[in-house]
Amino acid sequence: MKSISGKSLCKIVEQRGWILKRVNGSHHIYQSSDNVEIISIPVHGNRDLKVGTLRALMKVIGLTESDLT
What family, per the record (predicted)? Predict the structure, then answer.
């Protein structure tokens, strides 16, 4: 699986219609525009997200590996 940084994932999420609600420390909190789901993306500079964290977020967002390019 290709790993990406939290900043990159935030850009992808915003393109998919998620709205940034707040920033709590280094975590960006997004809410979906069409339902009540909330996700928290850790943004620690340009460090890549851990694989488990990335997979869990992708599952909630509805992304596939091909969407990460």
Answer: Belongs to the HicA mRNA interferase family.
